[in-house]
Each structure stands twice: as structure tokens, then as C-alpha cells.
């Protein structure tokens, strides 16, 4: 069994990481944002199984964890865009590895 340092509020760094990306749609949202900035409606189209409420909740949590940046434009109707922060972009290789693993084990 591997041991590592303790993270604040978690027993291990892996718990901390899973806590940040382990929501129902968080990894999927991050995966889509690797390709660039997306509007809320675009994310809804890409993740049709997610309700608007659930998608909003997952995006807020990702924003709170500083993985996603939200930009609101003062227009009518409101325009909101989401993109990865530098911290979020650092997860790209991990998400790509998860994708490759998934393809191999479908």
C-alpha cells in the first residue's frame, strides 16, 4: 500500500483529488473544457443526461475548487462562458489517461 502526506481535511492526496473531480459530471465537464471555452448551453448539449440544476451545481463546485473559471457578460440574455484555469488545465494529462484506460477496458 502506498502512503503519502496528509492533505487538509483528507486522509490522503488521492482523497483530495477525487473530492475535487469525483462529482457525477465533474470529470466530463473538465474533459469537454480541455477543448476550450464553452457556454452553459453548449455544455448542456454535450452532457444531455445532466439536468440544468445538476450542471450548475457541478460547475459551481469546480469553480470553488479553482478548476474552472466562469465569465459572465452583461448582455441580455445573459451570456456565461466556462473555461479551465491553469490548475484545471494541469488535470488534462490525467483525464486523457482516464479516457485511454476507458477505451482499453470498454
Features:
3-stranded antiparallel beta sheet, 51% helix
Can you characterise this structure?
This protein has 106 residues and is α+β, with helices and mostly antiparallel strands. It contains six helices and three strands. The chain has helices at residues 13-21, 26-33, 40-46, 52-64, 86-89, 92-104, and strands spanning 38-39, 68-73, 79-84. A three-stranded antiparallel sheet has the order 1-3-2. 15% of the residues are buried.
Helix-strand layout with pairing:
Layout: H1 13-21, H2 26-33, E1 38-39, H3 40-46, H4 52-64, E2 68-73, E3 79-84, H5 86-89, H6 92-104
Antiparallel strand pairs: 1-3, 2-3
Task: Please outline what is shown here.
The chain is built from 6 helices and 3 strands; from the N terminus they run ααβααββαα.
Distance between the termini: 27 Å
What value does the average pLDDT take?
A: 91
Gyration radius from CA atoms, angstroms = 15 Å
Give helix % range. 40-55%
Structural class, by secondary structure, is alpha+beta
Please outline the major beta sheet: 3 strands, antiparallel
- Order of strands, main sheet, comes to 1-3-2
Low-confidence stretches: 1-6
Name the overall outline: globular
